Amino acid sequence: MHERNIFKNDKPNFEQLAQEYPEFTPYLHKGSSGKPYVNFKDPAALRALSVVLLKKYFDLNLEIPLDRLIPTIPLRLNYLHWIEDLLNLNETEECGDEFLGIDVGCGASCIYGLLGNKMNQWKFIATDVDETSCKYAQQNVEQNHMQHQITIQHKRENESFFESVLSQHPQSQTKLFHFTMCNPPFFAEVYDGHVTYNRTNRRPSPASTSTATESERATEGGEVSFVERMIDESLRTKNAIRWYTTMLGKKSSMKPLIQRLKDAEITNYTTTEFSQGRTTRWGLAWSFSDNRPPSKLLEKPSKKKKKAKPFIMSFTRDFFVETEILNIKSTAKSTEIDAVVWDIVKVVEKELLDLQISLDAPEHIELMNSGAYELTGKAFANTWIHSRQKRRKEKRLELVQDGTTICETQDGTNSCETQDGTTSCEIKPNNQDGNSISSLNQASASFANNSNHPNQDGTQSYGKRTLDSISFENESEIRNPKKLKMDDEDSVNKYTNKEHETNTNELKMEKISTELTMLETNIVECPLFTFSCTASTAKQLHATGGRIPALSMLCLEGDREQFHQLFLHLKNKLHGVQISPL
């Protein structure tokens, strides 16, 4: 809602309106909670509200038939305030200095003319193709004593938007029209306004009903075609009007219309968004003058980020059994709870350090006049995804480093044999070629034992040993492996099978070096996110659960989605249960 809109910070009080204007009382209802509300799907209620708002805030008297479009006041004010911004009004330029505008499609209410003249003393020539609407508009103008400032003009269906006005009003020959306004029919056909579905199936049904006539609701080609005709005509009238503006009911209409402006080599244009309640409309303005719109109109409004809410977990019995932390009852003494909370902090600290997360030392803080412990940290890389696969890989490397070998048994299965000759596990082949699996596993073991060893010069060597130095039990059966990868943090080693001119196959290893060294990869300037962990009782953390130990995690800055993934990882690892804040 526009910052100068009177309803931005002063929402209508329905009960007070009913007391001041008894004609509004029949349309005021009370819900089960006793809160008053208005049924906006009732056209009579919608009309009554618009009428009393105009009386109270603008001292305007309006008569609107129920079979014509009933204007909502906040939206119309947003449009008018935007026009004010386009005209760059300020304290040194009086609003009453004969500003002249054209309202294309004024409707029965002539709402833009009445409000524009009331607020800024603007003069209007208001047009409409519906004779009945013109009659009501003239009546509304006269009963508010504005017939000398607002002229109602009936326009034929296929008549021009602007040229017909410029030709019929002598003042246009000597005075500049400062702006045009238009609220075009949105739909290409009448039934477009009565669709029973939406794109996401999540959008709520309209809060209000439409009483617009067919000409107010639909036009051939929809609002895009309507505004395109306005753009084409403005190429003929050009500087006779300073700003051509229109409201749009569909966001999708903006792109083709901007393209139309570009095709016509109109570079001075601007857009805006009118937001009021659950209804959003869009504005488009263009000009042939050299006066560019104020810079603040060109800035896209920044969306305020919602304040992050913490994720809170309590701990199950499995956590206390696994960590050997005392599982105390909620009736325990404060000193006992404090000790348990400290133990939990140390467990969480270890888990985060294992994930290579930078942490500050735990701090004792006061929380609701009681003790709590807080950790703050920064995550520079996502180390918690695929953690199970990483643990399996590390375990396998540990077995290899301990002297465990993977060999083939007589029955075709693979077993892990330790140095003392005992069999630790049995692995069945994934395919019929058991020898291939045994040989590949042996190759993996041999490579692991001979890689990552320091050289004499102190540097680190990766994968220097080739497969020529690895012996295979049955070499003939692994002549054509599809692909074998062995990865570490600094290089990716690929085994490829290359056929020589002598028709003998030989396995060779290619080393693909990365550009970054291990030292360089540890130097990261910007973290993924910064966060805090607070351990205390659920009650102190404003969560359900009373005095049971709990952990609260809050993203302070950065990628909230990845932070949420970290929380879920810890919750699963620590056998936690997410609890709801109070």
From TrEMBL:
<dbReference type="GO" id="GO:0070475">
    <property type="term" value="P:rRNA base methylation"/>
</dbReference>
<feature type="compositionally biased region" description="Low complexity">
    <location>
        <begin position="203"/>
        <end position="213"/>
    </location>
</feature>
<dbReference type="InterPro" id="IPR017182">
    <property type="entry name" value="METTL16/PsiM"/>
</dbReference>
<keyword id="KW-0489">Methyltransferase</keyword>
<keyword id="KW-0808">Transferase</keyword>
<feature type="region of interest" description="Disordered">
    <location>
        <begin position="199"/>
        <end position="222"/>
    </location>
</feature>
<feature type="binding site">
    <location>
        <position position="105"/>
    </location>
    <ligand>
        <name>S-adenosyl-L-methionine</name>
    </ligand>
</feature>
<dbReference type="GO" id="GO:0005634">
    <property type="term" value="C:nucleus"/>
</dbReference>
<dbReference type="Pfam" id="PF05971">
    <property type="entry name" value="Methyltransf_10"/>
</dbReference>
<feature type="binding site">
    <location>
        <position position="76"/>
    </location>
    <ligand>
        <name>S-adenosyl-L-methionine</name>
    </ligand>
</feature>
<dbReference type="GO" id="GO:0008168">
    <property type="term" value="F:methyltransferase activity"/>
</dbReference>
<comment type="similarity">
    <text>Belongs to the methyltransferase superfamily. METTL16/RlmF family.</text>
</comment>
<dbReference type="InterPro" id="IPR010286">
    <property type="entry name" value="METTL16/RlmF"/>
</dbReference>
<keyword id="KW-0949">S-adenosyl-L-methionine</keyword>
<dbReference type="InterPro" id="IPR029063">
    <property type="entry name" value="SAM-dependent_MTases_sf"/>
</dbReference>
<feature type="binding site">
    <location>
        <position position="128"/>
    </location>
    <ligand>
        <name>S-adenosyl-L-methionine</name>
    </ligand>
</feature>
<protein>
    <recommendedName>
        <fullName>U6 small nuclear RNA (adenine-(43)-N(6))-methyltransferase</fullName>
        <ecNumber>2.1.1.-</ecNumber>
    </recommendedName>
</protein>
<feature type="binding site">
    <location>
        <position position="183"/>
    </location>
    <ligand>
        <name>S-adenosyl-L-methionine</name>
    </ligand>
</feature>
